[in-house]
Amino acid sequence: MAGFPMNASPDSTPRPRRRFLTEAAAGAVGACCAGVPLAAGLVAWLDPLSRAGGGADWIEVADVASVPSDGTPVRVTVVSGRSDAWTRDAAVPVGVVYLRRTASTDIVALHSVCPHAGCFIDYQTDRKAFFCPCHDSTFAVDGSINDPRSPSPRAMDTLGVEIRGQKVWLRFQNFRPGIPAKVALA
Amino acid sequence: MKRVIDWIDQRTGMQGLLHEVLFERIPGGARWRYVWGSTLSFCFFVQILTGLFLWMAYSPSANSAWESVYYIQHEMTGGWFLRGLHHFVAQAMHVLLVLHLLQVIIDGAYKAPREVNYWFGVVLLMITLGLGLTGYLLPWDQKGFGATKVATSLVGIVPGVGPALQKLVVGGSDYGHHTLTRFFALHAGVLPGLMIAAIAAHVALFRRHGITAKQPYRKPDANFWPDQVLMDGIACMAVLVTVVYLTLRHHGAELHAPADPTQPFNAARPEWYFLFLFEFLKLDFLTQWFGHHGELVGAILIPGAVMGVLAAMPFIAGWRLGHRFNLGFLSVLLLGAALLTVKSMRSDASNPGFQAAVAQARTEADRVVTLIKTAGGIPREGAATLLKQDPAIVGPRLFSQHCASCHRYGGHDGQGLVSSEPASAPDLKDFGSAAWLRGLLTPSRVTNLAYYGGTKFRTGKMVRYVQEKLPKLEAKHPGALESLIEAVVAEADLPVNRAAAAARKPLIEAGRVAVTTSFGCTDCHAFRKADEDATAPTLTGWGSRDWMVRLISDPTHADFYGSRNDRMPSYLKDGRLSEREIGMIVDWIRGDTDPAVWLKPVTAAR
Questions:
Q1: Integer distance in angstroms from the first to the last C-alpha of chain B?
Q2: Which of residues 152-171 of A touch B (CB under 8 A)?
Q3: Structure letter (DSSP) for residue B544
Q4: Which end of chain A is more exposed for a tag (fewer CB within 10 A), N or C?
Q5: CA of A5: how far to CAs of A10, A134, B18, in Å?
Q6: Which residues in chain A touch residue B604, judged by CB atoms under 8 angstroms apart?
Q7: Domain membership flag for residue A178
Q8: Alpha-carbon torsion B2, B3, B5, B10, what sign?
Q9: Rounded to an integer, what distance in angstroms lies between the CA atom of residue B38 and that of residue B231?
Q10: Torsion angle, CA of A38/A39/A41/A46, rounded to 10 degrees?
Q11: Burial of B226 from C-beta contacts in 10 A (0-12 / 13-18 / 19+)
Q12: Which residues of A touch B79 (CB under 8 A)?
């Protein structure tokens, strides 16, 4: 405000120095008055930046026997505890993965979220391929890119799997889409 | 820089606009008495700003409104400060509105040709009151809920359209999701929108007619900028400092326990700036003069008439002595409101029932936060369900309803209310502790009202034993009474005693022998083994959770008072309380309320 061209003023104050001080003070007081509530709001609004995302927990997701032995992927819903702002759930669906047997005792898990833009990847039995509807592109049954026009920067994300007894356990986490590297979301 | 400004100015006329804003002519120069309008604009600006940010975290529905406000208040960085600013600026606005109105009336700024501008001011006053009323509900806590129920019930007494109007305001015949969505839309959309329009008209008309300069002029004429702006700014700063001080001092705005329509909330009061109306409605003359129309007259007709007089003031001012009448009317109105506010506050301050309710409300508000922190979050059904499972909250509630007509808890009813009736059964605070038992076994205290004084047992065998036999036995076996007390108290296994139980073991062992031998307790009581001939309540497990639940369930059971039971109902047998409810009373009396024990924290699967 103090920088506003004052020569346009219809009255001329005899003491420009005092006038300048008044202007500077008025500007400063005004900025202060507006700044406090604005800062209070911004601090609260920026709150999500100071919060870490959910960690990667090991979760039991399926029976080993439920994963087909012919290598066909099976879709599995991951159920886990979750905090959503104030709500705390003991067990809610938090994501979907595909389990696929690569050897009799070996199971891999592929994340259903597309690494390109985060769309939900579907497995299409007739094409024996994963299909992302957002760009009509496909991934091979092992999750690799098999589509020359695929916009995806990386293959489908794999997740840590452990077989404990007759159960499949999964280290579930989400990854940043859109970049070549596989980086867990914090 | 200059070129950019010129470029913009040629296309927008920005400089001319700014010039018009800043170079309002002020005859007689800047004065402090002109600051009120600006402080109000500033308050509104702060409310818009803080309100928008609060909006980004608020969720208007019956099972998420309180929860989202909890999250703002207790989890978000600086959320309590943001909410506190919004809360206290709202209060400041009401004070400043009164000051602005006073200054306008005193200076005669409402008279011709400024009538319309003054009316916009009256409209702004009503919008502000509406914002206060609607905002009070949004946290969906016990206080806002209770106050809103009263306010919306008053809407219902309007003749003819009242019930329909109430249903529209509430969003149905009961309070719920749509009450919140409707109030929120009013509070954050409709009313601020109207307010912006009314402020624009108010300021435009103010500019059209110019400031009502106070005579005589002390200084040469000046412009709004910079002297008056500085004064206005300093006044706004003073408001801000006050509000920030109040926010810091109270750690933001209070958040009571979540709304629960099934629980009485005796601490319900409207916001302080509506207290005068609340108190006015309680005045006797309303019902004496108008019978059952008293509420209608007090809540609607009289306030309506007052608003009518306020609106008519520019015309009244045209009459001889009209301006004086206006001044007098406003003074009487403000003085009356002030007196009623003071009366209301003083009667609350000297009302022990209200004070107990306020203390209880604070306890519940603090407790629900503890429960949420222990559980690691709020269950999907809402925070109110946590309180409903909590023995520390439900225990005293049930005690005051079902037990406190005979028993006391530390002299009160469990919720802090002291009855004028004498107790007719023991005081159960610290029941199961060494201190409690020592009191019972003290000859001078056993017939106190806190023990057997109010019961038929005051002339019974136990009292005779304590008063006649026990002093002799104590003299004969020095120190043995202490070990006896330890042994019986060990049966109760109170949570507070658990840590030190191992260290007391030798004392307890000695005491167990004393119970059966030297002190002869087992002549009447059973102790740690079945005794068919026992004629007094069993001491096996005395004061333990199971013992107490069984006693309350059926005191006429042979293990307890049998046919000698003195008036105590069989709560479970008679269907007065469920086993779960009895358990909560017992857990509370025994101090077994640590949420980490009963509230299974919700943790992720590993």
A1: 61
A2: none
A3: S
A4: C
A5: 12, 55, 11
A6: 57, 80-82
A7: no
A8: positive
A9: 10
A10: 130
A11: buried
A12: 44, 47
Range of the domain at A133: 57-172
Q: Which of A72-76, A138-142, B17-21, B412-416 has the lowest mean pLDDT?
A: B17-21
Residue B254 and residue B143 in contact, taking contact as beta carbons nearer than 8 Å: yes
Considering only CA atoms, which of B503, B25, B490 is closest in space to residue B223? B25
Beta-bridge partner residues of A82? A89
Rounded to a whole number of angstroms, the distance from the CA of A186 to the nearest CA of chain B is 17
pLDDT-derived band of residue B20, with 50, 70 and 90 as boundaries?
A: confident
Same domain, A38 and A63: no
Answer yes or no: is A181 within a domain. no
CB atoms B378 and A47 under 8 Å: no
B526, B528, B523: which is closest to B537 by C-alpha? B526
Q: What is the ipTM of this complex?
A: 0.86
Backbone dihedral region for residue B590 (phi beyond 0: left; psi -120 to 50: alpha; all else: beta): alpha
Reported confidence tier of residue A7, pLDDT bands at 50, 70, 90: very low
Provide, as residue numbers in chain B, all residues whose Cβ is less than 8 Å from the Cβ of A8.
15, 19
Beta strands in B185-260 (DSSP E): 222-223
- From the CA of B77, how many Å to the nearest CA of chain A? 5
CA distances from B426 to A135, B437, B439, B440, B527 (A): 77, 12, 11, 10, 22
Q: Residue A40 is nearest to which of B50, B71, B229, comparing CB atoms?
A: B50
The residue segments making up the domain with residue B296 are: 274-350
Higher model confidence: residue B557 or residue B263?
B557
Number of independent structural domains in chain A = 2
Tell me the average pLDDT across B353-370. 93
Q: Where are the beta strands (DSSP E) in A50-175?
A: 57-63, 74-84, 87-103, 106-111, 122-124, 129-132, 137-139, 158-164, 167-172
Q: Residue A71: inside a domain, yes or no?
A: yes
Residue A186 lies in a domain: no
The answer to whether A145 and A152 have CB atoms below 8 angstroms apart is yes
Alpha-carbon dihedral sign for residues B567, B569, B573, B574: positive
3-state helix, strand, coil in chain A (%, to 5): 20, 35, 40
Last residue of some domain: B334, B350, B366?
A: B350
Give the residue-averaged pLDDT of A171-175.
93
Torsion of CA B443, B444, B446, B451, to 10 degrees: -160
- Measure CA B261 to chain center: 14
User: Looking at residue A129, which CATH number applies to its domain?
Assistant: 2.102.10.10
Residue B519 scores a pLDDT above 90: yes
How would you label B450-465 residue by residue, b for 16+ Cβ within 10 Å and e otherwise?
Answer: bbbbbbebbeeebbeb
State whether A61 and A30 are in the same domain: no
CB atoms under 10 Å from CB of B590, counted, come to 24
User: How far, rounded to the nearest angstrom, does the alpha carbon of residue B581 sit from its chain's CA centroid?
Assistant: 25
Q: Is the confidence at residue B306, as pLDDT, over 80?
A: yes
Query: CA-CA distance, B423 to B406, in Å (whole number)?
Result: 5
Same domain for A80 and A29?
no
Residues B215 and B281 in one domain: no
